[in-house]
Design brief:
Blueprint: E1 4-8, H1 12-23, E2 27-32, E3 43-46, H2 48-56, E4 72-75, E5 81-83, E6 95-98, H3 99-110, E7 119-122, E8 124-131, E9 136-142, E10 147-153, E11 155-158, H4 165-170, E12 178-189, E13 202-207, E14 210-215, E15 223-229, H5 241-249, H6 255-263, E16 271-278, E17 284-285, E18 288-290, H7 305-322, H8 327-356, H9 361-390, H10 396-402
Parallel strand pairs: 1-2, 1-11, 2-7, 4-13, 11-18
Antiparallel strand pairs: 3-6, 4-5, 8-9, 9-10, 12-15, 12-16, 13-14, 14-15, 17-18
Helix pairs in contact: 1-3, 1-7, 2-7, 7-8
């Protein structure tokens, strides 16, 4: 009899896990509390590990948007611009896209509604999860009808994000696992580029404790990221969020910053949240496991969340194929392969945090110096390549004359 798994969450981690399960011969069922699938989204990047995992999952419809032209500019306090290294200039050659690009490719791959597609239930979430001797019993709630039903599965996967319902029901309250970074983020697509900049340009305006990023893309308007530091996280969720952000960034009086702030009230799709990581000693308990942000949440500063989610799904399928008769061995293998990768990038996120938004003036100065040195190094490397390309080619006859 084919084994059956419940996946809670129709995000990148959930759909990736579903593909991995199906490849291992399982029958996955995905439940999603939202009434429909999300589209669009903010800027993300995939590192080579993520592109490799995407290929391993069979994502042959993955749309990439790395700028073919354009520059990255840093804006100083006086509004002057200077060249700067951008996010895509980081080591590893990241590939740019928006979140919806990855989700669309995964959705195409799972083909819900088709003869061999994966079952997806919208407006559905778990209320209770009870592990029995050889299965997991789940009480599911259908918000559209109010109907509740109990079903049994061989495995339950919580891929339902930072504040995971599955994690809360099985592992404990959020406070046990979510680290606090005293920072906020707001990410959303812009209707168009900021005035006086090229369509594919990227912009950075950073001061101690606050930063505005605009990520240029190849074939669509850019997306924006506002991030700032605060010790009173709870207060950030009170009142009008647009007005709060205007207050935080209001004195950064540059047309590009005003353009970003003016766009926020009109966008139907934005992320506004506090910054955390999830740290757990184990990502599974019996027949219940967590994946993606529910398990480890590298956070947006890491730039590795999508890569980790894709890799998690690919590795899960591989581990289940290697251990078809022992779920415990498969989950232990899966975690052993992923844990070093996740630990490394959770640590790296602390350093990248300072790249996104320096937390004090001293670190802001260090960041500015590092960007200046990086630009000079890149300029010197470019000049060296041009000189080498322009140098005449010396053949045997030239060498003979020289001798």
């Amino acid at each position: 009899m084919q084994k059956r798994a419940l996946i809670v969450g129709l995000g990148i981690a959930g759909m990736s896990a579903a593909i991995g399960l199906r490849r291992a011969g399982w029958t996955p069922v995905i439940v999603e509390r939202a009434p429909g699938r999300r589209t669009g989204g903010y800027f993300i990047n995939l590192m080579p590990d993520g592109m490799e995992a995407a290929a391993g999952l069979g994502l042959d419809h993955l749309h990439t948007r790395s700028p073919e032209a354009g520059s990255t500019w840093s804006l100083n306090r006086r509004g002057h611009r200077r060249p700067a290294p951008g996010w895509l200039d980081l080591p590893g050659h990241p590939t740019a896209m928006v979140r919806g690009d990855v989700e669309a490719a995964l959705w195409h791959r799972i083909r819900p509604g088709g003869d061999d597609g994966i079952e997806v239930r919208f407006g559905t979430s778990p209320l209770e999860i009870t592990e029995r001797d050889s299965a997991v019993e789940v009480l599911l709630n259908d918000a559209s009808t109010g109907r509740r039903s109990r079903e049994t599965f061989d495995l339950v996967i919580g891929a339902d994000g930072l504040r995971s319902t599955v994690r809360r029901l099985v592992f404990g309250p959020h406070e046990r696992f979510m680290t606090t970074w005293n920072a906020m983020i707001c990410a959303f697509p812009l209707p168009g580029q900021a005035p006086s900049f090229g369509a594919q340009d990227s912009l950075i305006s950073a001061r101690a404790g606050r930063a505005v990023w605009v990520f240029g893309l190849a074939d669509r308007p850019p997306t924006a990221l506002l991030t700032y530091c605060t010790k009173d996280i709870d207060a950030q969720f009170t009142g009008d969020r647009t007005e709060r952000l205007r207050t935080v960034f209001g004195d950064m009086d540059h047309p590009a910053v005003r353009h970003v702030l003016d766009a926020l009230p009109t966008t139907p799709d934005y992320l506004f949240d506090s910054v955390h990581q999830v740290k757990m000693e184990r990502w599974s308990s019996g027949r219940v496991m967590l994946a993606g942000d529910a398990a480890w949440c590298l956070n947006l500063f890491s730039g590795m969340g999508t890569t980790a989610a894709l890799r998690g799904g690919a590795e899960l399928g591989r581990a289940l194929e290697e251990h078809p008769d022992s779920l415990g061995a498969a989950l232990a293998t899966w975690e052993a392969r992923l844990r070093p990768f996740i630990t490394t990038h959770q640590r790296m996120a602390r350093l990248k945090h300072q790249w996104f938004v320096p937390t004090n003036r001293f670190l802001g100065g260090v960041r500015t110096l590092a960007m200046h040195l990086a630009v000079n190094a890149r300029r010197a490397a470019t000049e060296e390549r041009l000189l080498q390309a322009a140098a005449p080619v010396r053949g045997p006859a030239d060498r003979a004359v020289a001798e």
